[in-house]
Amino acid sequence: MKDIDEIKNIVANSQHRELLSAALEIVENAGKILLGYFRTDGLTFSKKSTSSDIVTLADKETEKYVIERIREKFPSHGIVSEESSQINKEAEWKWIVDPLDGTTNFNNGLPVFNISIGIEYNGVPVVGVIYAPYLEEIFFAVKDEGAYFNGRKIHVSNTGALEDAVVATGLPYDKKENPDNNLEEVSIIAPEVRGLRRLGSAALDLAYVAAGFFDAYWELDLKHWDIAAGALLVKEAGGEIFSLRLNRNYSILAANASLSHKILGLLLTSHSRKSSNHI
Ligand code: IPD
Ligand code: CA
Ligand code: CA
Asked: Is the pLDDT of residue 113 over 80?
């Protein structure tokens, strides 16, 4: 992991140092497992909800390691992880884990993938860690203590004009069956902004908003593990998160405060039945 001395110093001064250092150690080792499979012939995959939604051997191996380590270090904590059923449902502390975010990229040999861990206390996000091992990018945030990228404090961008904005989005896995598939929103936003990107990793999209690399990001039908760490990063970096739907899991817009209402206005013109909430 890069900039290890700066990171150690931040961790030592955090009121949640035990959780943060455990999460950092776990994602670092999980990253090594992922890299062991990346661009090798040993990777197998299977389909999940649709033919776009896949899981690989690497997702499963990484998840196994992450769950074992959490259970060993914090036996009373709960765990919600993408490929497994919940552990300790009633626990006050919960780890929300995406063992491989960006599986389609990973499976095709594209380097934009990460491990994402959010830790919540009674449903309130307290720690978020996102590690992209191939890119050597480590992002983390602690509630009320700020957000960091490779050991340096980060802040959302201050881009205020749509024409200057670089914005990310994604398409839901049920895009073929469900007409609420974001294509209309893409056609409305794309002409207005400098650049529209689809990286294929929700956690990194959010981390990049937190770091100011993206000015905004929206996506429909995400899951808790896609956003648990990234949403905390965005808020701790001074950004805003809005909910775009009440009936489609986590459908969110993340942006800096100068841009958020402009993009929200455009997104909401596309569907009269849509409603939004500041969350
Ligand atoms: C997916 C990625 C993708 C987003 C999907 C997510 P996964 O996570 O974050 O960018 O468009 O909605 O499910 O399946 O690779 O963990
Ligand atoms: Ca994911
Ligand atoms: Ca995943």
From this structure: yes
